[in-house]
Amino acid sequence: MRTEQIKVFKFEELKPEIQEKVLDNFRNSENYLNYEWYEYFFENFKEDLNKISVDFESLNFDLYRNEISFSNINILDDEKFINSFMNNDDKIFNSLNEKNEISFSVGISENGYVSLDYDTEEDLTEEDYNQLKLKIEELEAQATEFLRDKLKQYLNQLHKEYEYLLSDEAIKDTIDINEYEFEENGEQF
Question: How far apart are the first and last CA of the chain?
């Protein structure tokens, strides 16, 4: 029978060059970051968009390519969504809307581009029709800009959180909270 003794160290007790090795090993480990790190942001973002009647199943993002898109996006209430962007001083639009003589259908692409299809029961003069058409285009641009800005904000939050999680500070916190111990060469015990 053979007995071996191994010296076990807390992170702070390791030599500085071994500490760096440990930090790099954690940073590059497949097990350190998993998909759950962004779930909190995802739920908050979904709640934020639900307030303006936008719902989606999931978001797809690539931090390296700086890309983000929706999956299975829906507008829950077209009118509520439109009212979140509409300027109340638009006379022709408000007049038609108050009389329920205009109806909308809202579409959103997976990249956040908004399209508004509309129908009116009232015969409009050419001038009123052109004003309404311009207002619809303006609303589409406002809604698209708003959603694209929200996507960019979300992507920026994800970038910041990811960078923090890969920082020495976050990794040291993980080591401390989990009370990890190490061999003299930096291998986790």
Answer: 22
Tokens of 17: 């060059």
CA of 169: how far to CAs of 52, 84, 145, in Å? 37, 41, 36
Predicted structure pTM score: 0.74
**pLDDT tens string 138-181:** 888 888 888 888 888 899 999 999 999 999 999 999 999 999 99
Distance CA 177, CA 69 (A): 35
Q: Between vectors from CA 58 to CA 41 and to CA 138, what angle results, nearest 5°?
A: 90
Of 131, 128, 127, 132, nearest to 117 by C-alpha is: 132
Cα–Cα distance for residue pair 180/132, rounded to 1 Å: 65
Domain definitions of the chain by residue range = 1-33+169-189, 36-165
Helix locations, 10-123, DSSP H: 16-28, 39-50, 78-83, 91-98
Alpha-carbon dihedral of residues 168, 174, 175, 179, nearest 10 degrees? Answer: 160
